Amino acid sequence: MGPDERARGLIRSLSEHLISGVAEEQWARSRRDFLTHGFAKVPFLAPDDMKNGIAEEIEALIAAHGVRREMSFKETGDTPRLMRNVRHQEISEHGSVIPAVYRSADFREALSRIAGEPVFECPYEPEQYVITELRQSGDTHGWHWDDYSFAVVWVVACPPVEHGGFVQCVPRTHWNKDDPQLHRQFIEQPIHSFALRPGDLYVLRTDTTLHRVYPLTQGRRLIINMGYASRADLSRTISHETMDNLWKAPEGQTA
Ligand SMILES: O=C(O)CCC(=O)C(=O)O
Ligand SMILES: [Fe+2]
Prior knowledge:
Blueprint: H1 3-20, H2 24-37, E1 39-41, H3 48-65, E2 67-73, E3 79-86, H4 88-94, H5 97-103, H6 105-115, E4 120-121, E5 129-134, E6 140-141, E7 150-157, E8 167-170, H7 182-188, E9 192-194, E10 201-205, E11 210-213, E12 221-229, H8 231-234, H9 241-247
Antiparallel strand pairs: 1-10, 2-3, 3-5, 3-6, 4-12, 5-12, 7-10, 7-12, 8-9, 8-11
The structure holds 2-oxoglutaric acid and fe (ii) ion.
Residues 130, 132, 141, 146, 153, 167, 211, 213, 223, 225 line the site of 2-oxoglutaric acid.
C-alpha cells in the first residue's frame, strides 16, 4: 500500500468516525467549552488509527526536517519561542496523512460544529500546519495570539504536568500588535490552564485567546497545529509579522 492509499484509508475511517462515532453530548460539551474558554479538549474527534497515522508521520517529519528556532517577538510583548519545527512546506512535500486531514471537508465540518460558525482553510499557507517539538529544559511556545481564528492541535507527546508543557489561555482578549500589553491582560482576566496527554486534541479560538505552552523542565512535547480561518478572516487584510519571522527559511540553524 502506497502512502497516498494509506492516507485515503485513514481519511475514510476519520469520516465514518465523525458521522457515527461521536456522542451528541460530546459535541454539545465541546461547543460549550469553546464558547466559554476559547478552548475545548476534543480527544474524541479522531479514531485511534488516524491518531496513530498522524503520530507516525509527525515523528518521521521531525526526525528528518526539524529545525531549531530560538527567538522572541515584539508584537507579542517579546515572549520567547524556544522550539524545533517542521514548516508547512516540508510537511506538504514529504507528508501524506497531514495534508489529507487538513483538506478533509468532513473534518472541517466537525470543527465548524464545535466553533458554532463555518471554518475555512487558511488562505495563508504557512499557517495551515506546523509541527512543534519542545525537548530542552526551558523550551516553550511563549504567550501569543495567532493571525487566524481557529486552531486544532494534535498532541503526540507531552510530559506530565509536573514537568510543564500544559496550555494556558486568557480568552476574550484583543491583540494590538503595536502594544500587546500582556500584563494588563493577565491582571484583567483569569488565566485558565489545561493539562494534555498524548492522543489528545484540542480546539482553540486563536485570534482572541492569548495562549502559551508552559515551559518544560523535563521530557518531550510534540504537536501539530492546524490553523483555520473564519469567514471574517477571509474578508479582512491580515499581516503576518510573527509568522513570517517564525517560519522564514532558517539561517543555518539546525539541531
Ligand atoms: O503547542 C501548543 O499546544 C500550541 C501551539 C500554538 O499555539 C501555535 O502553534 O500557534
Ligand atoms: Fe498559537
